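User: I'm putting together notes for a lab meeting next week and I want to include a structural view of one of the chains we've been expressing. I don't have a solved structure, so I'd like a prediction I can at least talk through. The sequence is below, exactly as it appears in our construct file.
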Amino acid sequence: MAFHLRPRSFGRGAAALAAGALVVGLAGCQGASPAPTGIQSPTASATASSDPNAEWGGYGSRDEACAAVAGDVLTLALVPKNLALVDADGGVDDIDDTIREAAVAAPGAIAPNYLQLSALVEAYGRDLAAWSRAVDGESTGASGSATPAPTAGSTGPTGSTPGGTSTAASTPTPTPSAPERPEFADTRYNAQLDSIKTWLSDTCG
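Assistant: Thanks for the context. Below is the predicted structure for the 205-residue chain, given as structure tokens.
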């Protein structure tokens, strides 16, 4: 899955925040399921401060930091929905990279919250990959699970016709149901996001 990211322009006016989310393109797929909502990427000019404890992180002023974090909150709120729709073979890493880039520029007081969000996304990515492998393994095992019909002339519990031709049909071997797709830890994720919202409210009004 190709997870298309749009350069973030938080702090550059209300029009940028109202632009909405991009649609994810599914490489090689034909619209079998709704595409996740796009996640915006941090501004390229936002870099880590030389002082990791700097009050405004990679931003030059309170106003710039407040505008950027406000945009981050909108972006981060989309993550659980995206993870629920993302393909197991790709996409989680793109979302995690976006969060980590935002963490680099985040004010020191809330940078740890960004990293906790990233850790939760990483953990979900591992669970999703394990689930995908389990589903693929069950599909492979089920392909040869049918019991072949007895050959002509055979006698056994299934019986045969007078001419010696068995009337038994192949009997599929029951297979266990496929494991359910893992669920993202929404509650823990939202707790970290709430901390960022609290900082935004207390600091920026």
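A couple of points you could mention at the meeting. The chain has one domain: 1-39+51-138+184-205. Residues 1-39+51-138+184-205 form one domain.

User: Perfect, that's what I needed.
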